[in-house]
Design a protein that fits this description.
Helices cover 41% and strands 13% of the residues. It has 13 helices and nine strands. Strand 1, helix 1 and strand 2 (34-40) form a beta-alpha-beta unit. The longest helix is centred in the middle third of the chain and has 18 residues, at 160-177. The chain starts with a strand and ends with a helix.
Length: 322
């Protein structure tokens, strides 16, 4: 089985550095892993130093050409939804914003196409359901599923059923992308629905431990998926791989001793206190009031203008009322 990564040229984010870190971490947990890196022509023609190191780490390097007018996000999704026609053999597709903690067990791959539940729960139980429903509306694609699969880790056999799956996925993605909204998960789950109905085959959750949604599988994670959406947030995170400062180090110094130390100990890579919260806190975090207060407190911590102290003083003074 191969491990497949997709990387396209982009002036934003740390995609090259994240791909390098994920591939390097895979080599630490499985030195014999066969890795394929699929890139677009812009990435290949660039002079990113991370790509030079990456090419030495992977076993297969494939360049795909696009018209210059095609944006990076569309290039990425095109490659991802057509991987079955690009890569030979069974493969496990892996998003770049991940780090490997332990090797795979190939006996876990029992169906033609498999993934992990988004947020590690049924769709109607997800804290992200409002956002998912918005995705359905924007793309005009509601797959009508209970099991909503996250697109960060996907297994595919080299089989007719898998080829049919990717054909359905790509064609549906082309249709939904006409909205100008290039996300691929609604179309991915549409393909699962078409081939498997409600009996979607799932990988164990530790193959895609989505820590921005749930820490349920983190203690025994094979692959930690830390996501990139945190970049837009004002604060910082205790998990090292979610900290902008870490990726700035990788961009500047590559796989230096500190970065390698973090890669070899991804389940211990914390900088700051970590706490679990119960169901009351979980529900509270969904409220607009929580979001407002948290934003004011973050602004205070960052030394920006904030009314947090005024609100805190008011609440303390009148707390006896409550």
């Amino acid at each position: 089985m191969k491990f497949v990564y997709v990387l396209v040229g982009s002036t934003e984010g740390f995609y090259q550095e994240q791909t390098l870190v994920s591939v390097a971490s895979l080599k630490f947990v499985s030195q014999s892993a066969k890795i394929a890196l699929i890139v677009d022509d812009k990435m290949d023609k660039g002079n990113d130093k991370s790509l030079v190191v990456l090419r030495d780490l992977v076993d297969e390097y494939v360049v795909c050409d696009f018209e210059d007018s095609v944006p990076s996000i569309a290039r990425s999704r095109t490659l991802k939804t057509t991987l079955r026609s690009i890569v030979d053999g069974d493969f496990l597709y892996v998003d770049s914003d991940t780090v490997w903690a332990s090797p795979v067990d190939e006996s876990d791959f029992t169906a033609d196409v498999m993934g992990v539940l988004d947020a590690h729960c049924l769709l109607n139980e997800s804290q992200s359901i409002e956002g998912v429903n918005q995705d359905f509306e924007r793309t005009n694609c509601d797959p009508k599923v209970r099991k909503y699969v996250n697109g960060g880790v996907l297994f595919s056999r080299d089989s007719e059923k898998a080829r049919k799956f990717f054909k359905i996925w790509h064609e549906k993605w082309l249709e939904t992308s006409k909205s100008g909204y290039y996300i691929d998960m609604p179309s991915l789950n549409y393909a699962f629905k078409q081939l498997y109905g409600d009996d979607v085959p799932l990988l164990p959750g530790n193959y895609n431990s989505q820590i921005s949604r749930s820490w349920k599988y983190f203690p025994k994670a094979k692959l930690v998926h830390f996501f990139t959406g945190w970049m837009k947030e004002k604060g910082d995170k205790p998990y090292v791989f979610q900290r902008k400062s870490f990726w700035e180090i990788v961009k500047k110094d590559g796989l230096n001793d500190y970065v390698v130390l973090m890669l070899k100990n991804p389940l211990e890579a914390f900088d700051g206190p970590v706490q679990l919260y119960d169901n009351v806190d979980y529900e509270l975090k969904k409220t607009a009031l929580y979001g407002l207060v948290r934003d004011m407190f973050e602004r205070k911590m960052l030394g920006k203008k904030s009314r947090f102290d005024l609100v805190e003083k008011f609440v303390r003074k009148f707390s006896s009322v409550f």
